[in-house]
Write a structure and sequence with these properties.
The chain is of the alpha+beta class. The protein has 2 domains: 3-77 and 107-182 and 274-401; 185-272. The chain is built from 11 helices and 19 strands. The strands form 3 sheets. Strands 1, 2, 8, 9, 10, 11, 17 and 18 form an 8-stranded mixed beta sheet that branches.
């Protein structure tokens, strides 16, 4: 069985589903191919390990495509303050407060599954979008203007434009022959979902240590997500510890401002890698999200820049339709790449600089870091600019990310 579409999106995760939703009610016929449905959500379930800090720009995009209500009806945790320090959270620390720039909060911590579920709910409502899920891809035959995605059930999906939203190990990217620049950081992230002795908090914080940052992300209720960056060997050791010994080490390592941690709900880990596609587009194909770039999660910007990719790509495709241009043309797709590649590269290089600066324990540099963090706390205009950047309010914003 052969089905033809104007746009075939491989990957129905957060980025791919956002692209489909952003193209709702257009003249394009769209297929979204996703390997499996995410598990259903119930408010009694413990929080998932994988969460994202959604910026204000990301919230606006998700509101624009009609998915935010589905997130709010499930679970989220807004945060209004962010604190960063190294040696001491009393001296040499910087705290950012959304109230300073007239916003009620900086962003929201949301489970990735909740975001995907809300988006897929919306996808199913859209007349010009077919969700093909569950679906296992057996092969991808790239041909500009007529790429073929072969499914395990024998179905062939043909698309004028093929969009890769299938993650860091993108099969679409490989099929097209687009290479990547990549390297592994000598660091893993251990993530622990815990119960805390405090009620829901409105602050996220990060402490820099010689082996990597310690981060606190508030979740709804008296729950939190803790991120413990360390060397691969140390993270493996921590994962193998019995729960009681692991909790003892966690309590000894994390700062006292965390408060009591009565219960561990779940723990897991993942390696950290930087990866950037050598190009985002070719005739009849576009990469978005992790298929185009993977970034150090230090500032939690990975999902946010992926959603900006989705919004900009959809915006350029809609402009092309209005102008009578073929959406698969290289000229149209290069406009998307031109708007996103440099922005993403700057973000990646900034995160790299932070990683390398705070991984270096040379005495003079450490002193400069602490002086810098302390000084930043006394420069209100600089703090405001950093907040606006982190909230996605700076740069070439697509219309969907601007104030509604």
């Amino acid at each position: 069985m052969n089905q033809r579409y104007d746009v075939v999106i491989v990957g129905g995760g957060m980025v791919g589903a956002t692209i489909a939703c952003a193209l709702a009610d257009s003249d394009l016929s769209i297929a979204v191919i996703e390997q499996q449905h995410p598990p259903a959500f119930s408010p009694e379930q413990p929080h998932d390990l994988r969460v994202s800090a959604l910026s204000l720009a990301s919230e606006r995009i998700l509101r624009h495509v009609g998915a935010w209500q589905g997130i709010e009806s499930r679970r989220l945790c807004p945060y209004s303050r962010m604190r960063v320090w190294e040696a001491s959270d009393k001296r040499g620390a910087t705290e950012f407060d959304a109230a300073r720039i007239g916003h009620p909060y900086l962003g929201n911590i949301v489970e990735n599954r909740v975001i995907q579920l809300a988006l897929l709910d919306r996808v199913r409502e859209i007349q010009n979008v077919d969700l093909i899920c569950p679906a296992r891809i057996t092969s991808i035959d790239y041909s500009p203007g007529a790429s073929i995605v072969q499914l395990e059930n024998g179905q062939e999906i043909v698309g004028r434009l093929l969009i890769a939203a299938d993650g860091g190990r993108s099969r679409v990217r490989d099929a097209v022959g687009i290479g990547t620049h990549k390297w592994d950081y000598d660091q893993y992230a251990l993530v622990a979902s815990v119960k805390t002795g405090y009620e829901q908090q409105d602050i996220t914080w990060q402490q820099f240590t010689p082996t990597g940052p310690l981060a606190f992300l508030p979740l709804s209720g008296s729950c939190a997500s803790l991120v413990w960056y360390n060397t691969p060997n140390e993270v493996r050791r921590l994962m193998e510890l019995p729960e009681a010994r692991f909790m003892a080490e966690l309590r000894d390592t994390f700062p006292s401002r965390l408060g009591p941690i009565p219960e561990l709900l779940e723990r897991g880990f993942f390696p950290l890698q930087r990866q950037h596609a050598q190009r985002y587009v070719a005739e009849g194909v576009a990469l978005a999200g992790d298929a185009a770039h993977m970034i150090h999660p230090l500032a939690g910007q990975g999902v946010n820049i992926g959603l900006l990719d989705a919004a900009v790509l959809a915006e350029e495709l809609l402009k092309a339709i209005a102008a009578g241009e073929p959406v698969e043309s290289l000229q149209v797709l290069e406009r998307y790449e031109g708007r996103r590649r440099r922005h993403n590269l700057v973000m990646m290089q900034t995160m790299d600089a932070f990683y390398r600066m705070f991984s270096n324990q040379v005495g003079p540099l450490k002193l400069v870091r602490n002086l810098g963090l302390g000084l930043a706390g006394r420069l209100p205009l600089a703090k405001d600019r950093v907040m606006r950047f982190a909230m996605g309010l700076e740069g070439d914003l697509p219309a969907m990310a601007q104030e509604l």
